Amino acid sequence: MTKIHNFSAGPAILPQSAINAGVEALQNFAGTGLSILEVSHRGKEFVAVMDEARAIVKRLWNLGDDYDVMYLQGGASMQFLMTAVNLLNKKAAYIDTGTWASNAIKEAKRYGEVSVIASSKDKNYNYIPKDFVIPSDADYLHYTSNNTIFGSQFHFTPECEIPMVCDMSSDIFSRNIDAKKYDLIYAGAQKNLGPAGTTLVVIKKDILGRVEREIPTMLNYQVHLDKESMFNTPPVFAVYVTLQTLKWIEELGIDQIEKNNIAKANCLYNEIDRNEKFSGTVNKEDRSLMNATFLLNDESQNERFLKACAEAKISGIKGHRSVGGFRASMYNALSLESVEALVDVMKNF
Hints:
The protein is built from 9 helices and 14 strands. By secondary structure, the chain is of the alpha/beta class. The chain has 2 domains: 16-252, Aspartate Aminotransferase, domain 2; 253-348, Aspartate Aminotransferase, domain 1 (Alpha-Beta Complex). The strands form 4 sheets. It has a 7-stranded mixed beta sheet with strand order 2-10-9-8-5-3-4, with helices on both faces. Strands 11-12-14 form a 3-stranded antiparallel beta sheet, covered by helices on one side. Helix 4 links the parallel strand 3 and strand 4. The model has no long low-confidence stretch (mean pLDDT 97).
């Protein structure tokens, strides 16, 4: 198959080893003679997959028994709702840095007071707010670490004395973080972890049980924790391929992945800044390592540029309609070679 340089924002590129393992499991899972699509999720072969998929996350972040890991369904969009249902008793603090943060705020408002303590909406989300005060009486702080659509990213962790919740859907395991500073981290798998269909939730167990409302069963984190992500049938294939991606991450090491991601981002941003035909859309200090957004200064040439990219086997480069222009998503599994192929097109355009 001809190599395609996959810059899709999600569902996105995966390590080839994870894809190969997924193909094999579709034919014969764990020597059962059955496809992974056919086996019982209660069978010992898949239970072992789920157990390892939960354990490897804790190893990667060096988390102890006070944390637990879940694989749920509904994407990060369901977590906008579930975080509020389970944690918002009276008031919560949110930082608005783009579409997904705004959607989380909208859902939280259904369950209590939401204090938007900072927002970059005034400049179409082209920067990360830095001067904000976190109210000490809030039940938790919520923010989105990387903004897939607008191409901005937090390059710092807020100093927070209340529980902290973070949507890391598009930059999870892309760089070193101190996960112990967070009480809840969630991420839709389809950007940096695996195929669409499952959502990773990492939670510090002692933050539960503080709300006064009755929580519907399927939205109750405690139910899913007690059943080890098996309250209902999990998305078995998505979890399996996510495990293979996590194995790839563990083998390579987050230190090396972070170095690779910095090298890729520098390669592309240097060309955006050097080439007079292009302009970046985000403040330089807040540029995302995962999603680089940029414009052609002569927008009448957009289609010609997209055609040149297609001829170079570059896919998924068109920007989101909220920003326009172009977006290069450089997730963990994307090679520097692919970024260099895009830069070559930009140089020759």
